[in-house]
């Protein structure tokens, strides 16, 4: 009987060891076995980033004077608007563009130098060179020059130089020809006053002032298309005489005719509006001895031609 009891005890102990071994196996295989080492945890950190974008200077392009016209004719005795338009590109964005400077100049005179109404005009800032309101990288600028009538004829250049917050960029140009303007202004009326039949102006000619209102040396030619018409009768064209000399006596001047004839005053080109270039022409008349009466009127034509 004692032997049987010992076997049962042994069998129970064996079963317990087997179960314990299985439990340990499960712990090891699941990774949950506690060791003497500390379990490490992952830690997060950050690193700042930075970069400096260098400035790209603006570039002007597609410059055009008066919509790419070949020529411009100035307006006598006043100013003419000459428009210069350019596109400006800034690779940092159009908002980086600060302004442009536009120079319209006689090509042979060059861009450098101060403003001079004869040969060089300068516009700066958004008030004078108006931006269109840009988009993306580009903006269009329109610069309107008021060019005086006496600006020298010949080839003219418009140079547009853009500027951003760092400095001036790349300029662009266009050219146009300013035409020769032969023009004049003359006293509105040659009034001989009241005269008797058969009389002339003798040594008291009437002055008609001629002013050069163009941009070139000029001589006036004079003529009349018809006789003076009176209340009764007419006064022939040739009864009027003219001269470039103030002291001329009637009969020593040149007879007026229907053919334009040069007066030989030779008026140089004006330099500014404050100093008109003018000269006097002097006129006399002979009243017919009979056949005329009352108020007489006519028209004398003054035509500007190139002077020498």
Structural summary, described in words:
This protein starts with a helix and ends with a strand. A hairpin with a 6-residue loop joins β6 and β7 (138-148). It has 308 residues and is mostly beta strands. The protein has helices at 2-30, 125-128; strands at residues 59-65, 71-72, 79-89, 97-106, 120-124, 129-131, 138-148, 154-164, 172-178, 184-186, 206-212, 218-223, 228-232, 234-235, 240-243, 254-255, 261-262, 278-285, 293-297, 301-306. It has two domains: 59-178, Immunoglobulin-like (Sandwich), CATH 2.60.40.2550; 184-306, Immunoglobulin-like (Sandwich), CATH 2.60.40. The chain has a five-stranded mixed sheet with strand order 2-9-8-4-5. It is built from two helices and 20 strands.
Residue ranges: pLDDT <50 for 5 or more in a row? 1-14, 16-35
Estimate what percentage of residues fall within beta strands: 35-45%
Oligomer: single chain
What separation lies between the terminal Cα atoms?
Answer: 161 Å
Structural class: mainly beta
- Series of secondary-structure elements, N-terminal to C-terminal: HEEEEEHEEEEEEEEEEEEEEE
Count helical runs: 2
CATH fold-level name of the largest domain: Immunoglobulin-like
| Number of domain modules | 2
Nearest-integer average pLDDT = 90
Task: Briefly summarize what is shown.
This protein is mainly β and 308 residues long. 11% of the residues lie in helices and 38% in strands.
What descriptors fit this protein?
2 helices, rod-shaped, five-stranded antiparallel beta sheet, 2 domains, mainly beta, 308 residues, Immunoglobulin-like, disordered N terminus, 11% helix
């Amino acid at each position: 009987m004692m032997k049987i009891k010992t076997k049962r005890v042994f069998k129970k102990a064996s079963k317990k060891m087997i179960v314990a071994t299985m439990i340990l196996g499960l712990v090891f295989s699941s990774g949950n076995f506690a060791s003497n080492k500390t379990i490490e945890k992952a830690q997060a950190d950050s690193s700042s980033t930075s970069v400096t974008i260098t400035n790209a200077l603006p570039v002007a392009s597609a410059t055009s004077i008066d919509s790419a016209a070949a020529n411009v004719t100035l307006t006598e005795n006043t100013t003419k608007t000459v428009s210069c338009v350019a596109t400006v590109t800034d690779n940092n964005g159009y908002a980086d563009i600060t302004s442009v400077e536009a120079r319209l100049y006689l090509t042979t005179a060059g861009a450098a130098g101060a403003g001079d109404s004869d040969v060089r005009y300068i516009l700066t800032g958004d008030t004078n060179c108006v931006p269109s309101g840009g988009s993306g990288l580009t903006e269009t600028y329109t610069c309107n020059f008021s060019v005086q009538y006496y600006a020298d004829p010949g080839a003219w250049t418009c140079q547009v130089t853009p500027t951003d917050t760092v400095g001036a960029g790349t300029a662009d140009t266009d050219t146009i020809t300013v035409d020769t303007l032969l023009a004049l202004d003359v006293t509105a009326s040659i009034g001989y006053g009241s005269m008797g039949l058969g009389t002339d102006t003798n040594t008291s000619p009437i002055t008609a002032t001629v002013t050069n209102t163009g941009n070139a040396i000029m001589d006036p030619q004079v003529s009349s298309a018809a006789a003076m018409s009176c209340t009764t009768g007419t006064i022939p064209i040739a009864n009027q005489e003219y001269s470039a000399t103030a002291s001329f006596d009637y009969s020593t001047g040149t007879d007026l005719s229907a053919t334009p004839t040069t007066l030989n005053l030779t008026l140089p080109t004006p330099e500014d509006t404050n100093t008109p270039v003018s000269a006097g022409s002097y006129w006399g008349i002979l009243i017919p001895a009979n056949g005329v009466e009352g108020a007489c009127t006519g028209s004398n034509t003054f035509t500007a031609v190139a002077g020498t």
